[in-house]
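With this grant's support, we have paired protein sequences with backbone structure tokens. One protein thus recorded is set out beneath this paragraph:

_____
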Amino acid sequence: MAKTLVYLYGLIFAATGAGLVSNLVCAQTAPEWATLPDGRAASTRLAQTDAGMKALLSGTADETTDQPSVKFGGFLDALPAYTYSGPAHWSRAVARLQLTAQGAIADQVRWKLGGRVDVDPVYYGSDFYLDPVKKNQRLDFFYRENYLDFSAGDWDFRVGAQQIIWGEVIGLFFADVVSARDEREFLLPSFDIIRIPQGAARAEYSKGDSHLELIWIPIPAFDKIGKPGADFYPIPLPSPTSAQTAALFQTPVRPARQLRNSNYGVRANTLAAGWDLAAFYYRSFSTSPTFYRLPTGVGDQPFSFEPRYDRIWQAGATLSKDFNEFVLRAETVYAHGQGYSVTDPGTPQGVAIRSTLDYILSVEFALPGDTRLNVQGFQRVFFGGGVSDFAVKTDGFGASLFISTKLTSTLEPQLLWVQNFKDGGGLIRPRLNWAAAKNTTLGFGVDVFTGPSDGFFGRYNNRDRLYAELRYDF
């Protein structure tokens, strides 16, 4: 496997080196990446997207600027990771290539195409993981955003696979209720890698500083959770996992592709005295599955667990305001109909249905010396019964801290700490980024999970890892 790793990363480094030479010769403008601390770009409304393309189509763009009719982009990313908690093992060596293209096919009609391929030699040669895990994570092809944009009067429309981001806060998913996620590496990759586009029809009406957004998702996408025995499978399992234990967990059952199983939602927002205020309602299947306990009739294995997607609805609100010295953000979401796995053998199918209220308050400061500080407090409250027998604890108050600074023009240390102060545990992520060249970042970091083995973070407390990441954007 070592030869395969060397060969694979040799290709990555060669491609990156070629890109660096091209940058030096062409001196093109670098695209923005990781504009927010979690590596995601700030969400934009349809009316704001492709503004340069709209200007070009309408004849209002600067005619002296040479604008290509088709714009290409993407990134190369390589990430080896070594899990040092016992038993120690190589857990990742993934190389990613994403390609995108966007342009216009007619006046006021724009398009975007994108795809990504991931390959990981660890899951070709490792004896640590079960075969289903290796087959699931060794090679992946992903569709990314692939859509058409067009307008009619005050309405803007987008049809196709797209990211629909309703959340405002940094680094955590609260009001970001529409996105499906690739959670085979938990929440560790950047959000542009975690998020899975939804195939949707989206309409937005704009009038002044107010907007109304309608979405319909006929065939929803769901979270990728991996196979039993994977490092970040949702249910805490021994590491390594035996085939007998993995056999207790069935393949997720997705809802039938019927019109009644569509997801749909509405969101309205406005600006008032500098406050960006929004409210939404979303009817959907939960993107993450609930594990239902089923009888097997087999003596030594009386039960198995079947992941299903509950039909739920969510209503929430967000706000943000720039106070110059700091930026304030807040989100709250009420969810109804979600099931949670419990350990009580007397609970039918091992699942309790609970309503929840989540809220988070976020304050971000831009400090001297290119220093950024983000502090957040959050809480989940359950309604309708106790939670002491939940298989994974997620209730209670928590907080997160993100800080980064520039030691030099190219060296940026950063620290992310997320902690649930009840039973959920915590995550500590120190990292050092080196801006090696234009559009190229080399990072070194550690991911440390703490807390009890039935906590949201603590269930992975033997998955602590060291990693490096090289990313080149073009």
In short: The helical segments are 2-26, 51-58, 122-125, 131-137, 191-194, 243-246. The chain has one domain: 2-473. DSSP finds six helices and 23 strands in the chain.
